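new request in #modeling-help
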Amino acid sequence: MDEILSYIQGNKERYFAELKELLAIPSISTNPENGPDMQRCAQWMADQMRIIGLQNVKLFPTAGHPIVYGEWLGAPGQPTVLIYGHYDVQPVEPLELWTSPPFEATVRENRLYARGSADDKGQVFIHFKGIEAFLKIKGSLPVNLKLLIEGEEEIGSTNLGAFVEEQKDLLSADLVLISDSSMFGENTPSICYGLRGLSYMQVDVVGPNKDLHSGSFGGAVHNPIQALAEIVSRLHDRNGRVTIPRFYDDVRPLTRREREAFKKLPWSDRKFAGELGVRQLYGEKGFTTLERLWARPTLECNGIWGGFTGEGAKTVLPSKASAKISMRLVPDQSSTKVARLFERHIKKLAPKSVQTKTTLLHGGEPAITPIDSPGVTAAVAALRKGFGKTPLYQREGGSIPIVVQFKEMLGIDTVLLGFGQPDENAHAPNEFFNLDHFFGGIRTIVHFFNELPGHMHGPRKKR
Amino acid sequence: MDEILSYIQGNKERYFAELKELLAIPSISTNPENGPDMQRCAQWMADQMRIIGLQNVKLFPTAGHPIVYGEWLGAPGQPTVLIYGHYDVQPVEPLELWTSPPFEATVRENRLYARGSADDKGQVFIHFKGIEAFLKIKGSLPVNLKLLIEGEEEIGSTNLGAFVEEQKDLLSADLVLISDSSMFGENTPSICYGLRGLSYMQVDVVGPNKDLHSGSFGGAVHNPIQALAEIVSRLHDRNGRVTIPRFYDDVRPLTRREREAFKKLPWSDRKFAGELGVRQLYGEKGFTTLERLWARPTLECNGIWGGFTGEGAKTVLPSKASAKISMRLVPDQSSTKVARLFERHIKKLAPKSVQTKTTLLHGGEPAITPIDSPGVTAAVAALRKGFGKTPLYQREGGSIPIVVQFKEMLGIDTVLLGFGQPDENAHAPNEFFNLDHFFGGIRTIVHFFNELPGHMHGPRKKR
């Protein structure tokens, strides 16, 4: 292993140059005008796979953006790891809040700033470099690998499910490995054993059939902005609980062991509030902040718009107002069931003076991975060696819907080996990737490949 | 008068051509990029004044858009009328809802569609053509005229007050005549004796100091969109009353005569709701629709925005959300006092978990003109002759702040001789001007000039 680690140490500059090239491609999956960039990014991924020594590299077209696949199957009898990641990124608006351009990776204070640096191109790149180091030095890997890199994670992985379903044989493996989440904190390695799911909705409220002059009509018609505000304001009660009937019915309660594990994590509400610049936190009564973030379902308004939003004053009473509202889900909630409950509740809340339309924009299920599964124990050992610290156990507030699909379609668990950090601004301006995590990540990945066979064959057989 | 009326009849085609030219200038005062158009439109107005025979025509520069002035003072001993109008127009968004381009005046079903056709370029043009007809045929007018056409009415007439204050002598007159409002209905002439005032506010709600990932942070921070929705939803109570303490303190109650006059107007709530496409009207309990629109103060959300508002799904928990909220005021409310009450109320409603900022964007006072003043009685006589019908008395829900300034600065009342109609889409897509009103308006104006001296000298002296 020393030789491999030296190789990694010796190639840092080149890694940077390559990663900058990757991060320069504006692979925003939700924008139709970035279609050619998506193609270019997929091609970059495929070329890179070939360069590092993967075989059977292919671009699979989909109804949306292509899926990139590559494999190395030269370790018969050893476990097969399916590595999943995504090359698409979130939009970059509001652009004026970026300190450096989102697609020109820039290092400041040991952080690499760029859209996709942490979510998820930078983390996919870690795997590439771990594989490269192993194959370059040893000529082989201790495990079999299959890489599946998609381009639609940020828009709900629309076409991935069908692909996995179709390609069950191609993708068959012993476990999935994903690096698309955060460690607990800066240089605080942790292993993530749970993810929240998501039901992302749009609510449109329509009042009068056209925009009206607010002087001539104000006071006699229910203003759709007001009606929408009334609806949104009634989605939480005074205790910060979501008011949708039966919303909490399927929530798996936290075990005492989990609550205690969370309490061991280094955490300060005051520091958290200070970092976010708020005087007071907000959330569901009866739960700590980490419990609210990881183990409780929540509802957030992601966007709202209606009427005149430009500079100056336009006295309009608009015809329509809309909101994007998403719910984060925890085991054992179902995204489609929650979407139905939401729609029913909105209908009930809507006054007769307006019309409402509710649309499910996308959904994903929550997930939990057993802490004592061999993939997790191998990951814990690898993190200890890669970062020189004992990792902590945590959950993650975000969603990786594909984890559930892998479980359902391929029957295998996912190990979430994330190298981001919580304040990395994923989905916001000034996204960055901590460079210590980047190099610690590459070291952890090579250790993981090295550790996994022992954990799969060893402890499991003893049981 | 017959000769004058024949002249008007004979020049219809030319009027159209000229008006189309005027309406083609995109004089949107709120958009900085339309600055040159504003200049061009002011110049067009000045040229037109010279063409129809006005004297002393001048463009007065201001800190914003220029003011156009012209006069005819050849009737010594006769009353002097100050005609006010504006050449600026509202923005045209959303453009996709216009059937024909907003700056290409198009006739469909006896209506002239264009931004500014009714509010207010088309109505100013009526005065031009009335003056032209009189001077062309008679060589003189029965009254003295001063025309004051500004370019900032749609952005709060920011620089007009100072101009009027400075030019008191130039503008001195016996009454103000404004055509910038609507008749009660299609071919239903009416005289408007009251206007609502306006306090137009912006509320900004700031939560976390940056946009956050709604998965990683959702449930632990007060979402500013939610906080804003909570605030907006609490600005009305269950009875549709505005909840701002002391908001109704200075409201002058409707007299029994007014309530009865309003009941005489042809009105159907069902028809009104049907035209607007709403199943149910909304408003302050205990008042009829016309009372709500004309004689009760109201509060409307004119715009709201925050977070992701594009296509698709972005899982952001935004840092900020904003709303434009305006209050329509009635006598004897004060726009600055109401703005202060609003600001105080918002502060009280805002939860500690967010910060709010309230800004007064602009304000104007409500106004009432005596029904038995000579200007109004002359207008009633002129409308009867111009349209061949006895006009009704009404109020108007919108605001013309300058009416209050003329009263305060020049000490004179304003006669509101509006030729629009309520569904004309002022401030909205597909603004139009009814062509019967256009020609009836020109006839009414020449009758008004002819009637006024008798009403001023006659009845007034008898008292």
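bot summary: Chain B touches chain A through 98 residues (CB under 8 Å).
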